[in-house]
Amino acid sequence: MKNMLTTISNALCRITGRNVLLIDLSEYVNVTSLATPTLAQTLRQPPKPPPVGPRAPAAAQLVSAQTDRLDGPGTSVVVSRSFADFTSQATFDIKKCDVHRLEEAPPLKAELTRDQGLQYYRVMQTVRRMELKADQLYKQKIIRGFCHLYDGQEACAVGIEAAINPSDHLITAYRAHGYTYTRGIAVKEILAELTGRKGGVAKGKGGSMHMYAPHFYGGNGIVGAQVPLGAGIALACQYQGNNQVCVSLYGDGAANQGQLFEAFNMAALWKLPCVFVCENNKYGMGTSVERASASTDYYKRGDYIPGIRVDGMDVLCVREATRFAADHCRSGKGPIIMELQTYRYHGHSMSDPGVSYRTRDEIQEVRSKSDPITMLKERMLSNNMASVEEFKEIDVAIRKEVEEAAQFATSDPEPPLEELCNHLFSNDLPLEVRGTNPWVQLKSVS
Amino acid sequence: MAYTGFHMYSRSLRQSPPPPPQPPLTPTKMNMFQSVTSALDNTLASDPTAVIFGEDVAFGGVFRCTVGLRDKYGKDRVFNTPLCEQGIVGFGIGAAVAGATAIAEIQFADYIYPAFDQIVNEAAKYRYRSGNLFDCGSLTIRAPWGCVGHGSLYHSQSPEAFFAHCPGIKVVIPRSPVQAKGLLLACIADQNPCIFFEPKILYRAAVEQVPVEPYTLPLSQAEVLQEGSDVTVVAWGTQIHVMREVADMAQEKLGVSCELIDLQTILPWDVETICKSVVKTGRLLISHEAPITGGFAAEISSSVQEQCFLNLEAPISRVCGYDTPFPHIFEPFYIPDKWKCFDAIKKMINY
């Protein structure tokens, strides 16, 4: 199809003496894809595609109609294939979800449009690259303290975000960089927070585990402590009647904390719109789930609360299940538990090599068979939803973005010392905070 | 009046007859975590009811304090618990009441708060409320404590002041490997529930010649590390090493001779040694990493001024952390470092 269009357009160019055609050739050719854009410009194909800017959409860029400049030797022409080449929507089979105390289950098929697919790919790849960059910076000792990386689990963050609205609420534990990004914070602010600079999300005062965003409540260091908080946020949603839900995430290690069961009881009793999500990455720090939990069916641990077990490495499966769960909550049926079966490639934190309690073969196997980004990419390529070059362009753009963010994070100044005591309390006049000596008083503003 | 104080603490130690003359001890070079492992090894060897449990203790612990013990003594004596601090301490209290020597590990002192209710409401009050019928004296809780350079909010806290407010438990903080082993063995032997905070920054950094054989050091006895005549300096844990440097600086630059005292046991603390020293010098400086308001220095300061008011030449000085959460990026400014302490001594001398 593409060859035919190119041939025709080349021929017409030669006939008309113009280098660019301004008419839509697709009318003359039978195309099988459903959506045709308003105007497609078929351009002369240069031998190598030049790099695309970071904010460029993945699809073809429309070149201006000034054709004279295209004749020059140094002209850069963006590679494009007409929209008509790609399948714009496809339906995929997704894994069946086990359910607990539910009559229905999430659907077995998921629809994915081209734009959505590219968007998910872009976000997942950004999270992956950002985490790897954080790993690099940590090893260079530019990031210090504790750093818990999220690579391998990207499908969870992206799938959940795809199914909820920005006005919904989300709270998670310390493996929070991915969620900070999906909830709207730029990569450079995340990296600057990791390095403790004033351009960071929390002004450099929080570090890795304490990042926040609108409707994203962090970022919590104490294991399991965020779940009762999430139930409370759900209560606020119910009280205000705004049809929002709260997604409260925790891990397989936290699933044994007493406060979780207290939160489950309250949520079920008062039918709070809370989606409890257990990100089961098979290891609570160094302890495998079999050695920590009497029951590893985390989706059933809510007992009287319905549960779903989801393949957390498939972004579409996570999206459909989250949509199902959010609908369940919004319809007033009360809380629901989702267990996302996922995997982390890195160790628990940067001080954990990650191989003393599991084999490298296991990590390698998951990477090769179930990597979320690769799975999505292969799905899209095999259904002709995008081209390899497009993915490469996205990768290049993301690499550049993350590199610039790391540059910013390394060069931004640290917060000034006056910030040390700010925001302790909410106070109108500056509060005086006692320092290390009785005669040292510091100002705290809020 | 005195009746209310009965049955809070048991005054007897497990080994009631006086110990036989000790054979010569074999000192070995050990750092703090190795000295802790050695102490636990001695306990498991001599006491068949001793059990060690906590998060990740089986493979050796995140700070290597229990390396090799599971292989040596079996998985029924050294075992992991799930991630539940309240459960760990509650379980430990139960095990101790039933007669086992329970040694619970809380992975970081910052995580001890879910267990606060169990410690304060159950462990501390067991003997008192049962009129000495029951007690959980064979419970010892160990936790890494204090700032470590990169710990930030939740891996650097010093919560001794919260527990100092609770009669019925003992709180102990060593400053070095030799102290760590001796005090830990004393805590395990002691017939009262004890919390043993181990300064995590010293786990690797502090190395000493520590005897392989078991030995105990007395609890509730402060140790005078350096005699002096001008200023009494009191600290515990990591801060002792900072104050040692401050004492040297004061001697060199100000000609001030400091008497350095390691408090060791926070609760019940050795009032006598501190007061005797203040009577001699007339000035007192107390320093700790925890925030200043309500920190343990306040208790010491208050008690000393009650007892030694007329002997004081200058107001008692406290150099402590700021009243903020333990910061991430601001840590070097937050901690009471040697310059702040030196400054405090200077001001006291010139009062």
From TrEMBL, chain A:
Q: Which reaction does it catalyse?
A: N(6)-[(R)-lipoyl]-L-lysyl-[protein] + pyruvate + H(+) = N(6)-[(R)-S(8)-acetyldihydrolipoyl]-L-lysyl-[protein] + CO2
**Top-level class of the enzyme under EC nomenclature:** oxidoreductase
Of the GO CC terms on this record, one is: mitochondrial matrix
Q: Where in the cell is it found?
A: Mitochondrion matrix
Record key words, sorted: Carbohydrate metabolism, Glucose metabolism, Magnesium, Metal-binding, Mitochondrion, Oxidoreductase, Phosphoprotein, Pyruvate, Thiamine pyrophosphate, Transit peptide
Required cofactor names = thiamine diphosphate; Mg(2+)
Q: Name one GO molecular function term.
A: metal ion binding
Q: What is its EC number?
A: 1.2.4.1
> Residues in domain Dehydrogenase E1 component?
124-417
An example of a Gene Ontology BP annotation on this entry?
Answer: glucose metabolic process
Indicate the principal place this protein occupies in or around the cell. mitochondrion
Q: Which domain of life is it from?
A: Eukaryota
Q: What does this protein do?
A: The pyruvate dehydrogenase complex catalyzes the overall conversion of pyruvate to acetyl-CoA and CO(2), and thereby links the glycolytic pathway to the tricarboxylic cycle.
Which NCBIfam families does this entry report, sorted A to Z?
PDH_E1_alph_y (TIGR03182)
Q: What is this protein called?
A: Pyruvate dehydrogenase E1 component subunit alpha
TrEMBL record, chain B:
Please give the biological process terms from Gene Ontology that the record holds. Answer: branched-chain amino acid catabolic process; response to nutrient
The answer to whether UniProt assigns keyword Transport to this entry is no
Highest taxon of source: Eukaryota
Q: What GO MF annotations does this protein's record show?
A: branched-chain 2-oxo acid dehydrogenase activity
Which is a Pfam family this sequence falls into? Transketolase_C
Needed cofactors, names only, are: thiamine diphosphate
Q: Which reaction does it catalyse?
A: N(6)-[(R)-lipoyl]-L-lysyl-[protein] + 3-methyl-2-oxobutanoate + H(+) = N(6)-[(R)-S(8)-2-methylpropanoyldihydrolipoyl]-L-lysyl-[protein] + CO2
Listed EC numbers? 1.2.4.4
Q: Name one GO cellular component term.
A: mitochondrial matrix
Q: Which UniProt keywords apply?
A: Oxidoreductase
What name does the UniProt record give this protein?
3-methyl-2-oxobutanoate dehydrogenase (2-methylpropanoyl-transferring)
Question: Gene name on record?
Answer: bckdhb
Q: Which InterPro entries match?
A: THDP-binding (IPR029061), Transketo_C/PFOR_II (IPR009014), Transketolase-like_Pyr-bd (IPR005475), Transketolase_C (IPR033248)
Instruction: List, for all copies, the residue spans of the domain called Transketolase-like pyrimidine-binding.
Output: 30-205
